[in-house]
């Protein structure tokens, strides 16, 4: 059910964005936007089906905490 | 617009300056941005307890120095946003990498603030509402604001006055619950705790107004962006100071144990039997300011991206980035534990973008362009236009373009 909702949202957004770009022959914009659509669509489907997506913020936290050892200490008490 | 005898009014209208941002508007907008973070200052109370008001004052003073760096960048390269600034200072290749990092930073701010707003709403106001619904509703409002372009900052003056009025009113209504003894003893924490509290304040609410550098090309006088941001620090910092003083005076030791001290202190308001439950007023203000903050970060991310790829109309990214922000916000933290863990690293993460990179940019700008970068760029502009990252960027500041276009 959620997959259908995700596909519907992307179809509606695509209808709103792409026809104007294509009619104006703005190919660079069309390609860049298409790449973002594909990436976000994959992320959305991954989240709906697997329930999780890789979090860059936790990777950054891991780097700051475990590699740089610079994160704040846990709150006292 | 009324025509002045010398025709200055006509020229301003012709140039489209009437829709440009003034320094005052940017000051109020950045103050509102700072106030939105009042929910995120719990760490200050945790580390400096009853001395948090001192930490706020010191952080405001230090932030003025940091804003001075942004101001110098703004004066040296007037009308350039962080994306164009990176390309102008570091050159095409390295500049684009730094610009992409800034775009990621702005996007991450939008995601993290949306996560905070969602948590606040579902924990404090609407506990049975799925958090995704809150995310979607907030991001739809933000998308509408972003589609208006830099005009979203023009109406923040009224909002700041309203917020200040409500904060002062809250303080007066809480007067009977406040104890001056709660501020004692003074300076009893280890120095490291004050350092952490000040760094946390600097990076989370105060220096985050660096995001407003994205509006540099939309300003009437882009060279005074530093002064505008300093004005924002004064107004926003003062409001933050009021919040912290009120919380310490009203809550005392309970400060450490509550997740949202500001919300808890307003819950204490009880005048007779009729003036209670005023926290909903604060919640409305907080959601509004959060929405503004997310809108600014959202705008900065997509306008930055459009400028990076030299795309004229940034609005084509609103829909897909709105979806991206909702999807990423749902997946950014799996649990409250992860969120709390992230809060330990957030100030260090922000330090790179808000202090280290701007200082490096300023140093490289001095090394590459000397004391007067505009003269240097103007002298070599005709020959190298299009080859040097800095020389074709004057196109970024174009008062004749339609509002919101990059």
Write up what this structure looks like.
The complex is a heterodimer of chains A (77) and B (406). Chain A is an all-alpha fold and 77 residues long. Chain A has one domain (2-67). In chain A, 75% of the residues lie in helices and 0% in strands. Chain A contains three helices and no strands. Chain A has helices at residues 2-23, 27-50, 56-67. In chain A, helix 1 runs antiparallel to helix 2. Chain A is elongated. Residues 1-14 and 382-406 of chain B have low confidence and may be disordered. Chain B has one domain: Amino acid/polyamine transporter I (Up-down Bundle). The longest helix of chain B is centred in the first third of the chain and has 34 residues, at 92-125. By secondary structure, chain B is mostly helical. Chain A binds chain B through residues 9-10, 13, 16-17, 21, 28-29, 32-33, 36-37, 40, 43-44, 47, 52-58, 60-61, 64-65, 68, 70-77, and chain B through 43, 46-47, 104, 108, 111-112, 193, 196, 200, 256, 309, 311, 313, 316-317, 319-321, 323-324, 327-328, 330-334, 338, 341-345, 347-349.
Can you summarize this structure?
The complex is a heterodimer of chains A (77) and B (406). Chain A is mostly helical.
- Percentage of residues in DSSP E strands of chain A: under 5%
**Sheet with the most strands, sense and barrel status of chain B:** none
Radius of gyration of chain A: 19 Å
Low-confidence stretches of chain A: none
What multimeric state do the chains show?
heterodimer
Named at the architecture level, the CATH assignment of chain B is Up-down Bundle
- The amount of helix of chain B comes to 55-70%
CATH class of chain B: Mainly Alpha
Radius of gyration of chain B: 22 Å
The major pleated sheet of chain A works out as:
none
How many domains of chain A? The number is 1
């Amino acid at each position: 059910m959620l997959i259908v909702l995700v596909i519907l949202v992307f179809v509606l957004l695509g209808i709103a964005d792409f026809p104007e770009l294509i009619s104006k022959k703005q190919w660079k914009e069309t390609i860049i936007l298409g790449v973002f659509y594909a990436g976000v669509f994959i992320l959305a489907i991954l989240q709906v089906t697997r329930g999780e997506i890789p979090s860059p913020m936790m990777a950054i936290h891991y780097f700051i905490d475990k590699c740089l050892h610079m994160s704040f200490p846990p709150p006292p008490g | 617009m009324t025509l002045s005898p010398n025709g200055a009014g006509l020229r301003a209208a012709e140039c489209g300056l009437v829709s440009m941002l003034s320094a005052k508007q940017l000051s109020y907008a950045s103050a509102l941005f700072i106030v939105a973070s009042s929910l995120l200052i719990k760490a200050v109370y945790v580390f400096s307890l009853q001395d948090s008001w001192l930490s706020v004052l010191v952080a405001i003073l230090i932030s003025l120095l940091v804003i001075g760096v942004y101001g110098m960048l703004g004066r040296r390269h007037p009308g350039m946003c962080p994306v164009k600034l990176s390309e102008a200072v570091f050159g095409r290749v390295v500049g684009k990498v730094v610009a992409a990092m800034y775009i990621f930073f702005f996007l991450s701010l939008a995601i993290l603030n949306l996560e905070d707003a969602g948590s606040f709403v579902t924990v404090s106001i609407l506990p049975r509402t799925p958090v995704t619904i809150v995310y979607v509703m907030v991001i739809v409002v933000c998308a509408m604001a972003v589609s208006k372009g830099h005009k979203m900052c023009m109406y923040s003056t009224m909002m700041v006055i309203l917020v200040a009025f409500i904060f002062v009113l809250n303080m007066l209504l809480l007067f009977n619950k406040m104890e001056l003894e709660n501020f004692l003893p003074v300076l009893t924490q280890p120095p490291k705790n004050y350092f952490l509290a000040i760094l946390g304040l600097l990076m989370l609410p105060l220096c985050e107004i660096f995001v407003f550098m994205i509006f540099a090309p939309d300003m009437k006088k882009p060279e005074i962006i530093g002064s505008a941001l300093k004005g924002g620090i004064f107004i926003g910092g003062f409001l933050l100071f009021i919040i912290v003083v009120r919380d310490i005076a009203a809550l005392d030791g309970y400060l450490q144990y509550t997740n949202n001290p500001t919300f808890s202190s307003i819950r204490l308001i009880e005048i007779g039997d009729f003036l209670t439950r005023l926290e909903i007023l604060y919640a409305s203000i907080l959601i509004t300011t959060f929405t503004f903050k997310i809108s600014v970060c959202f705008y900065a991310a997509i306008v930055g991206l459009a400028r990076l790829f030299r795309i004229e109309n940034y609005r084509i990214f609103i829909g897909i980035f709105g979806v991206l922000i909702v999807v990423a916000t749902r997946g950014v933290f799996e649990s409250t534990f992860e969120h709390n863990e992230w809060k330990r690293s957030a100030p260090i993460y922000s330090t790179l973008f808000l202090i280290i990179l701007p200082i490096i940019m300023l140093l490289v700008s001095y090394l590459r362009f000397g004391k007067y970068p505009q003269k240097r760029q103007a002298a070599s502009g005709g020959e190298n236009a299009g080859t040097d990252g800095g020389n074709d960027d004057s196109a970024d500041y174009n008062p004749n373009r339609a509002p919101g276009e990059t």
